[in-house]
Amino acid sequence: MTRRRVAGLTIVELLISMTIGLLLLGALSQVLVLHSRQFADSEALAELQDHASAAIRFLRRDIALAGHWGMASSATHIDGASTIADANPMGIAVPSRCAPRFTLDLTLAATFTTHADRWQCGGTARGDSPALVLRYASTEATEAHADRVQLWLTPAGGQTTHGEQATPGQRHDLQVMGYYIAPASSLFSEQPVLRRLTLRRRAGQPAYVDEEVAVGVEYWRLRAAIDTNNDGQADSWVESDDTRLAARRSDGAPEFPVAALEVSLIVRAAAPVQRAIESQRFWLGDTEWQAPADNFLRVHVTTTVALKNWRRSG
Asked: Residue 153 belongs to what H/E stretch?
């Protein structure tokens, strides 16, 4: 019996060819899907690294300058700085948004809290994440301005001012930076964000501006290198909730000065990936943190920054 042929091929040959073609097409589609996922993951990771770099860049600069008081030899010699008994000894005008000690606690150039609510500044902070305040004088001298909190500084010390003229000496703007993590960005829906309260001026008065620094920062841990025996050398790493970080001498200076800070960040992608991600565990300092099983890509970055002026902060 003669076989029927279609366009030079038998039906059997045609079926075999179609089957092979479908198998090849299926294999190619799997390769394309895998390649597409890898490309998307690479883009997401690159974006995470950019967000982490932005956060680290802001933090490194402020940490390095913490405790810089211009010509003054120590913050304990600046009149008007918070004392143990009085948060605002000279009664100068400071932003009402936060407690006065948040602005004027100059002898603690780097201040840690277990939660940003303790600043009494308002805002919404992540409940299980520490907060960090950094204080220093501007690196450049400036003119007197009534809408700024300023420091009049001399080699012997200085005082806090609010627009008053004072000579001799140099006038510098007081810099206060309060970093914390908020669970949701105001600019990018449902993304966590590292925020910063910054002492500036607004409507003719000193004010705190609450700004977003780096979107995607989901969690962080802070450790401090402290000098425990007052020999001028850091000899112990402590977590941000260690009570020694708040201990003071009778003159208000820190009992255990902070010489360096270690900052560990977890940065999360903007959206979950279309695949399962194994449970992720990260070591932040001496603390293990487990990420939720939500299929978000995350990166972990750590930086250590020395406080260049730590011996002068108190």
From this structure: strand 150-154
Structure token digits, residue 66: 């913490």
Segment 148-189, tens digit of pLDDT: 999 999 888 899 987 665 555 689 999 999 999 999 998 887
Distance CA 223, CA 305 (A): 11
Per-residue pLDDT, 122: 84
d(CA 27, CA 37): 15
Residue at 99: amino acid letter: A
Sequence-ordered list of residues with C-beta below 8 angstroms from that of 186, at least 6 positions apart, any chain: 212
CA nearest to 112, candidates 98, 126, 125, 102: 102
Compute CA distances 201 → 39, 132, 172, 198, whole Å: 45, 21, 14, 10
Residue 214 sits at φ, ψ, to 5 deg, of -150, 115
pTM comes to 0.84
Cα 58 to Cα 44: distance, rounded to the nearest angstrom: 22
